[in-house]
Design brief:
The protein has about 300 residues and is α+β, with helices and mostly antiparallel strands. The chain is built from 9 helices and 10 strands. Helix 6 packs across helix 7 and helix 7 packs across helix 8.
């Protein structure tokens, strides 16, 4: 009886353990791991089938599992920094545990792996964008005149602007896109706010990423822009935008917003405008109560 009770309790405890699987999402990363003898898979498609089977089994057992984006290059650096043998499943497990705490992850909730793969890649891009934007702000250093941290000041200013944009947008759900041009690459952040009876529902991670990218645009001379689309039942969508400037945001005219939305970026050819959409000037954001840093 005691032995049975112990087995039952251990089964219960196993259900309490959350797990993370480090996933190789594409053929390139999969091939990079194949030169390790301890990595036993030789076909990416079969590997994904086994991953999905493990996910389904764990879900049936009541276990929670997340997927983490496994990057072979980052894995090699991880092992080198810690003096680990990269040709070991134990080292891969330690790296995956690190990813669970600091990397891009998505939860498995019974959806097909074909749906999870692009979601995980998108999460990885978002995470990398935030890390790079954070690094750019940190590199700004301190103001030579007063010693103020320029990156922190830009982030504070971006936070104030974001609050004013959301507050002046009018009723409806808000969808914002902020882009800051490179080199080496364009930073893009997206923020969606659902309007639940006048109360905006926002994701804290999206707020952090969006504010960081906006701060980079405000603190550097890189060209950029911010577009807001508001959607409410029974009315046309409203679209307006701003150029990013060191002093803040410069409103786009209704014609400029129309041209931006109705022009093919690559060819420059006109695109038919969407139906039931108004392209308009943005609302007045008012004066910033706390002026930006300047000397």
């Amino acid at each position: 009886m005691t032995y049975t009770d112990h087995r039952t309790m251990r089964r219960v405890l196993r259900r309490e353990i959350a797990g993370t699987i480090g996933l190789l999402t594409d053929e390139h990363d999969f091939r990079a791991m194949r030169h390790y003898r301890s990595f036993l898979f030789d076909d990416h498609g079969i590997y994904l089938e086994h991953v999905e089977a493990v996910l389904r089994t764990r879900a049936l057992q009541g276990s929670h599992t997340t997927l983490a984006l496994f990057d072979p290059e980052e894995y090699t650096e991880f092992c080198a920094q810690r003096g680990l043998d990269p040709d070991s499943h134990t080292s891969r497990t330690r790296f995956t545990a690190e990813l669970a705490a600091t990397g891009a992850t998505v939860p498995y909730e019974g959806q097909p792996l074909t749906d999870l793969l692009p979601a995980l890649v998108d999460e990885g891009v978002r995470h990398a964008t935030w890390e790079y934007a954070t690094m750019l702000l940190a590199r700004l250093g301190a103001c030579p005149s007063c010693g103020e941290d320029l990156g922190r000041e830009a982030f504070t200013r971006a936070s104030r602007l974001l609050v004013r944009i959301l507050d002046t947008a009018g009723p409806g759900s808000r969808h914002l896109v902020c882009s800051v041009s490179g080199p080496p690459e364009t930073l893009v952040a997206v923020l969606h706010a659902d309007d639940n009876g006048g109360h905006l529902e926002l994701d804290d991670t999206e707020i952090l990423e969006f504010t960081t990218v906006l701060a980079v645009g405000l603190a550097t001379d890189k060209p950029g822009g911010l577009v807001l689309r508001t959607t409410a039942p029974g009315t046309p969508d409203r679209v307006h935008g701003w150029r990013l400037r060191a002093h803040g945001l410069e409103p786009l005219t209704a014609g400029e917003v129309f041209d931006a939305y109705c022009t093919d970026i690559e060819s420059g050819d006109p695109i038919p405008p969407e139906s039931n959409v108004d392209y308009c000037e943005p609302p007045d954001l008012g004066e910033d109560p706390s002026p930006s840093h300047h000397h």
